[in-house]
Design a protein that fits this description.
By secondary structure, this protein is of the alpha/beta class. The chain is about 35% helix and about 15% strand. It has one domain: P-loop containing nucleotide triphosphate hydrolases (Rossmann fold, 3-Layer(aba) Sandwich), CATH 3.40.50.300. Strand 5 and strand 6 form a beta hairpin. The radius of gyration is 17 Å and the shape is globular. Pfam families: ADK (PF00406), ADK_lid (PF05191). This is KAD4 kinase.
Length: about 220
């Protein structure tokens, strides 16, 4: 159990690699990634924030969006009522009523890169497993590697819907990002590849919490 409580959130548009970054943070710093798959996969899947924590089933500490006094069922109730958060300025301010964030990581990926990623993304509906036809294709085209069941492309991942999703995120996220920037807790990382962004995220967090794995193991 970590001795220092650090509340952090990872922001980014859909397709920006939030989940991958959070999983790497979790492994590197001995944390548990509380992802949309654990709570509300569908409602959290369209962008917004991911969070991380360390601790038992009842209390969460270390890198966390939620303070240690908030229990798991309260996290689920919050996400159910507020969808993926903080997506808007109102939600960011409402989050202030739960905890004061120490750190916000914002992933800035060029929209053309995001369009390509999202348009090439197919999913296995039952499990939520995601494939990308460019860099993470299934072994057999069109079917899930583990079950052999058909893959589908989400309606909002189709090329004609992607641009509208990204514009909507940009408009909603701008005041949220400005809020955290004004508080001096925003750290932005830009690039087209998660592997190139990751070393900078690792260095930032290493200054706050001791890592359990060296960076080069990723």
């Amino acid at each position: 159990m970590a001795s220092k409580l650090l509340r952090a959130v990872v922001l980014g548009p859909p397709g920006s690699g939030k989940g991958t970054v959070c999983e790497r943070i979790a492994r590197s710093f001995g944390l548990q990634h509380l992802s949309s798959g654990q709570f509300l996969r569908e409602s959290l899947g369209g962008g917004g924030a991911h969070w991380l924590s360390q601790g038992g089933q009842d209390h969460f500490t270390a890198v966390s969006l939620i303070p240690s006094v908030v229990r798991g069922h309260e996290i689920e109730a919050w996400t159910h009522n507020h969808n993926s958060f903080p997506r808007t300025l109102g939600q960011a301010k409402a989050l202030d009523g739960i905890c004061e964030l120490d750190l916000v990581i914002s992933l800035n990926i060029p929209f053309e890169t995001l369009k390509d990623r999202l348009s090439a993304r197919w999913v296995h509906p039952a499990s939520g497993r995601v494939y990308n036809m460019d860099f993470n294709p299934p072994h057999t085209q069109g079917v899930d590697d583990l079950t052999g069941e058909p893959l589908v492309q989400r309606e909002d991942d189709r090329p004609e819907a992607v641009a509208a999703r990204l514009r909507k995120y940009k408009d909603a996220a701008k005041p949220v990002i400005e809020l955290y920037k004004s508080r001096g807790i925003l750290h932005s990382f830009s690039g087209t590849e998660t592997n190139k962004i990751w070393p900078y995220v690792y260095t930032l967090l290493s200054s706050r919490i001791p890592p359990v794995l060296p960076e080069e193991e990723h």
